[in-house]
Design brief:
Helices cover 34% and strands 19% of the residues. The chain is of the alpha/beta class and 362 residues long. It has a seven-stranded parallel beta sheet, with helices on one face.
Length: 362
Amino acid sequence: MTILILGSQALTTTIGVPGDRIVDHQRTRRNDMDKRILGSGGLEVSALGFGCMGMSHSYGPNPGDRGQMMNLLRAAVDLGVTFFDTAEVYGPFLNEELVGEALAPVRDQVVIATKFGFAFDDQGRQTGLSSHPDHIRKAVDGSLRRLRTDRIDLLYQHRVDPQVPIEDVAGTAADLVAAGKVRHLGLSEAGAGTIRRAHAVFPVTALQSEYSLFWREPEEEILAALEELGIGLVPFSPLGRGFLTGRVDQATKFGEGDMRAALPRFTAEARTANQALVDLLTGIARDKGATPAQISLAWLLAQRPWIVPIPGTRRLERLEENLGALRIQLTPGDLATINTAAAEITMVGARYPDDMQQMIDR
């Protein structure tokens, strides 16, 4: 598959970015970025979305100045990104507030996705899973308020709740769509059987699950099911939580609050063993005049036309680098070379520790 090329029209804009520096850079005009369609309902989004989680969750206690993060989200819009992903649990709640405030001036130009599925105590601490219909309706009202909007474009169940039939979840989503509060239903980390059951009640527009050269499990069963049903895939962590960028190695120290410190695939031993994959990507990137991150995203985009990765970042230069993946031309020979070489590399380390893995539907 040929990767479509980012539009060439540009304008020079000056904005504030993390680090309190000012950068003049060439920005692609809005609407020039290539679009992709998620689901049979025709949800059109930019070919690359923006995963907002890391701005306020999972990667350390000091995610960055709020104003700088808002500037970055608005810069993404100016660069052509129309698809933004958040969730009530990120923060909790803080990420939705950030996204809502940043995107309010351009609300009708963007697609906002958020997620429900966790229960919280009176102090806002996560206490487990909950997808009971009453909880879903309450969660949606809270998300709408924090996002400063009257509708959620794509509402995901964040994790499958084994105590609630997925048919009840899909039925509740159908009611919310009928009420105008939600436009499309999504699932996250759901197995093929659960996806089929939900889709039989109400059309599922997209599945959000981890997928990259660092984690290829969706290829075993999920991709075929999504293709059969006409459902899009939104890969989170498309750069392997930073590993595929080449900026994480066996010497990297993860700070307090960085979830990677608890992931088996990110032990020093696993990182040493898995470096072979980064070395492969680095060599291909050098030949293409690209970066390992760009090759990783270009490979992912080439797998199916209905795949929309959502890399996240706190830095403008990384955002621009990620979007540069849309210019990368991977030939069938390139893809065959990557797949053949990657198949010979055995990845070391589980994706999640046991307690997190138990929340993954099969």
